[in-house]
Description:
This protein has 380 residues and is of the alpha+beta class. The chain is built from eleven helices and nine strands. InterPro entries: Acyl_CoA_acyltransferase (IPR016181), Bact_Acetyltransf (IPR050832), DinB/YfiT-like (IPR034660), DUF1572 (IPR011466), GNAT_dom (IPR000182).
Amino acid sequence: MAPDYLSSVRKQFEYYKLLGDKTFAQLPDDALFWRYNAESNSIAVIVQHLWGNMLSRWTDFLTSDGEKEWRNRDAEFEPKIQTRPELLAKWEAGWSCLFTALDSITEANWDTTVYIRNQGHTVTEALNRQLAHYPYHVGQIVFIGKMIKDGQWNSLSIPRGNSQGYNAEKFAQPKRKVHFTQEYLPGHSAAPGTTESAGSQQKKAGQATARQQQPTAQQVHILPYEPRYAPDFKRLNVAWIEKDFVLEEADLKMLDHPEEYVLQPGGHILFAEYQGQIVGTCALVRMGEGTLELAKMAVAPAAQGLGIGRQLAQAALDKARQLGARRVYLESNTKLESALQLYHKLGFQTIEPDRPSPYARVNIQMELLFADAPAEAPKF
């Protein structure tokens, strides 16, 4: 068994899934069902086919034929998916089945023969077969998205005209062993045993020192919204969203018009000031029926690891209590592990989705119920 190979395969699958995620995020709902002509497939149909293939290939990957008796491949090309949530659910289910199967591969079963339609494959051959198949269809999804968006498309690779600058940036770095997906996928670091650059080592050392010198509550000032902070509200949120996802229409509405979409309906926006700089922000968005949504929470990269996010979140919860809220709701993504750990520490619990999200990146919803909420109507 070659651990480096299996790790590389996983990263490549994650990368191609990310391309699909970022395409869906750029498209309105109706675009997911658009077809160029009667002989073409929509994005929804392509996702349906990928879902069917993935469930068939990766269920009992090592112990049963990859073409399951219960699979109906022809039906995968019929337009059955009707909504974005249904499309995303099948997309996630297929990839989840794949990654679970990858986790089952060990040194002990590496020599297993994997059958697909009674044709025997080594594990390597079976992985390579799907690693060639799925990017083919993801490429179709991206191409359709690019056709639909035309000049409004946000490039998922090197933007046109930027090749020279991109190459200059890469060649300015020392030679090293690194997986090509590292700059795209969250949570992946340099390969084990590789040498980090001096700049990277200095950055990590600085972060470690910063964690040892966490600011006290007196050093971090939690401030209410003022118009002069509006650019900070957008700047901080754009940074974290674009790092792992893509900006969506719903993001821009709130970030460009915070007073209209947050404050005027009865919500609040808070900011964290540290050493004279605005380094964090979050919003409480009114949802009605005693519920506020904790949204648009962001901390500048240079200030992360200092406990500022926790202070901001706690201040927001205190504000929600003052307003008489009975429930605080939030939406997130399971990639954001540090954020989810914080929410759990604050008492949030994962819930079954109870409302459609305006954001394609959302795959987890949470809530915090105030047991001591007043019986009278909330003040919002």
